[in-house]
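Human: I hope this is not a bother. Would you mind checking the protein record under this note? Thank you for your patience.
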Amino acid sequence: MTRQFSWDDLRVFLAVADTGSLSAAGRRLNASHATVGRHVQTLETHLGTRLFIRSPEGYALTVAGEQL
């Protein structure tokens, strides 16, 4: 079962969008990359869409992510 969306999920989304990686966002927010990833997954599940394109080079926004 997925937890309910929170405003922290948006804060994490912005950090990942700005830094391009879970690790860099985690360093910025003083959180583990796993915690950052859970926040991103929760937000995507809540919204019903992918917000990032994941690749070996990092995270890039999808159209939905850009709109958010």
Helices lie at 7-19, 22-29, 33-47, 63-67.
